[in-house]
Amino acid sequence: MTRPSPALTPAEGLPSRPALRSPGSLLSALRPLWALAAPYRGLFALGVAASLVSSGLNLAFPLLFGRLVDASFLRVGSTDTGPLDRTVLLLLGVFALSALFAAAQSYLLARVGAGVVATLRERLFGHLLTLSPRFFAEHRTGDLTSRLTADVGTVQGVSSTALAGLLTQTVTLLGSAALLIYSNPRLSLYALIGLPVIIGAAVLIGRQIRAVSREVQDAVAAANASAEEAISGVRVVQSFTAEKLERGRYGQGVAASFAAALRRAGWQALMGGTMSFLTFGSLALVLWFGGRQVMAGDLTPGALVSFLFYAIQVGGAIAGLTGLVNQFQEAAGASGRIFELLEERSELRDPAAPRPLADMRGTVQFEAVDFEYGGEPILRGISLDAQPGQTVALVGPSGAGKTTLVNLLPRFWDVTAGRILLDGHDIREYAVADLRAHIGLVPQDTQLFSGTVEGNIRYGRPGATDAEVEAAARAANAHDFIEALPHGYATVVGERGLKLSGGQRQRVAIARALLKNPRVLILDEATSALDNQSEALVQAALDRLMQGRTTFVIAHRLSTIQGAGEILVMERGQIAERGTHAELLARGGLYRELHRTWAERDSEGQRGPD
User: Distance between CA atoms of 152 and 170, rounded to whole angstroms?
Assistant: First the structure.
């Protein structure tokens, strides 16, 4: 497709992530989260400081326990309990301070994690809204919502509690290992001899866990996508009694995710078992050699107890880090899926210096427009000229390219060749948001949101007053039925507006378009699915909506076609005929055949075909 040369400016704060396209390292996969944490780095620093203090105080526990043992066992028969009492009081004080700083660390880092995830979720959703229809045509909704919910949730666990655990366990491991070596170098050799093996095993198995975690997340997303499609189209599913088919399709997705989850559980079990054996095997060696030193008189019982506690802290830290590695590996897979979406860029680019579009007249010109999708030609050589206030009707058999043509005007797609002019300038010279602000759309399949009637109308102009909302509803022949609803304008319409009838939904959509007050209007078969009574009300509202606006209408009704300033008859992506109603009838051809069919159906009380 031809596109303006200027590129979109990357979203603020989003780092480039080439490492995500290959397994890479764990740190490289999680590094982009650090960029999102910029507003919270002060809190993060305080959390780290609290973690260091808490972990440092924990390192005093084994030493004080050792003193407690020596004060008890080496002073057997003595009535002086002062050393014992002082040691216990000191131990309780250290416990209290450690608990205080641990609580502060937990809150501060949880606050950082929650903030990062909130920013990430908002950034991801906002970015998805900027992508073009082509992107959504190529991605399943269930997969996108899975990334927005499940994957972000996985990252949240890592960026809060797991992050706090990582800091604590790292300080504990390093501090305990240092104190082990300082207190008894020979005994430390037995305690730490398995450490390189433990770390190597953790790295090797952790890579497998990360790869399988990505498989699990992809499989869950695929199952969610299948469920999303079945639930959103449940009426079709039930009408074709395809419940068993959809259950089987979803079951296949669940089975795939289950199998991947079992593989991940197997690797995690191997990780846990390996770490447990190596860690506690090292402790057994410590007990054996330390016991021999106590028996030989080279070590006091309290010193051995202190050493054992430090060794246990080392083993516990290693076990804790092993579990955290599993979590971080899962988060790395989820982070990759999230940032792959954030790296997506819409092919509908804004120019570097958009042309202002404050006062639009509404002159629309198509100049030799071609459009292809997937290498297949959809439109060829489309040229037309619509003047301000004129109505252009598009007719033709289903699949002729009518809807595709009108979707090029608000730049849901860009032309492959040729250009579209608005008020004499290529529409790609305007910012996409400015262009669409002046174009209104009333589709055949009306999309309402699950809020109130008032909220759906106000969607056309969020800053509108209540009086303006009501005036738009009256002009759309919607006010009377809205007032008759249980809560009037405050009535909740349900998902996709399913609590309203088809005609009511269309009139709410027309009210929304009226409130927006666009200069260019697109009506895509807006009355095709309505009964005669609803159609009459909707058509009257449409007539008001079209007044003074440049309108493109994909038409079914003869009255709309007959009143159009120009009728374009489309066939196989081209304009086969053009002219007024009278001219086309007199000329014969495809339009006369379509008109004869519509007239016969109208005489039978039916509407025209697609």
Answer: 25
Rounded distance between C-alpha atoms, residue 564 and residue 550, angstroms: 11
Q: Which domain holds residue 495?
A: 448-517
Which of residues 326, 343, 360 is at a domain's end?
Answer: 343
The verdict on 454 and 333 lying in the same domain is no
Number of domains in the chain: 2
At a CB cut-off of 8 Å and minimum separation 6, what does 537 contact?
477, 503, 507
Within a domain: residue 420?
Answer: no
Specify if 61 maps to a domain.
yes
Name which of 552, 206, 246 is nearest 405 in CA terms. 552
287 and 141 assigned to the same domain = yes
Q: How many other CB atoms sit within 10 Å of the CB of residue 605?
A: 8
Q: Which residues of 81-103 are buried (b: 16+ CB within 10 A; e: fewer)?
A: eebbeebeeebeebeeebeebbe
Give per-residue pLDDT as tens, 372-429.
Answer: 987 889 999 999 999 988 889 998 888 888 889 999 999 988 999 999 999 999 999 9
In a domain, 319, yes or no: yes
* Domain stops at, among 471, 489, 517: 517
Per-residue CA distances from 252 to 147, 247, 262, 560 (Å): 20, 9, 15, 49
CATH code where residue 185 lies: 1.20.1560.10
- Same domain for 162 and 288, yes or no, is yes
Residue 374 is encoded by which pair of tokens? 């997937």
Q: Are 557 and 549 in contact (CB under 8 A)?
A: no
The encoded tokens of residue 16 equal 């480039």
Q: Provide the token pair at 288.
A: 């054996």
Residue 232: inside a domain:
yes
**pTM greater than 0.70 (yes/no):** no
Work out the angle at residue 12's Cα, subtended by the Cα atoms of residues 9 and 13, and round it to the nearest 5 degrees.
135
The widest CA-to-CA distance across the chain, in whole angstroms, is: 125
> In sequence order, what DSSP letters do the residues of 504-532 get, joined into one string?
HHHHHHHHHHHHH--SEEEEESTTTT--H
State pLDDT tens for residues 553-574: 887 666 667 778 899 999 989 9
Cα distances (angstroms) measured from residue 181 to each of 50, 289, 310, 319: 26, 15, 10, 20
Helix (H, G, I), strand (E, B) or coil at 550: strand
Task: Report d(CA 283, CA 314) in Å as an integer.
Answer: 10
Q: What is the CATH number of the domain that holds 456?
A: 3.40.50.300
Domain identity same for 325 and 452: no
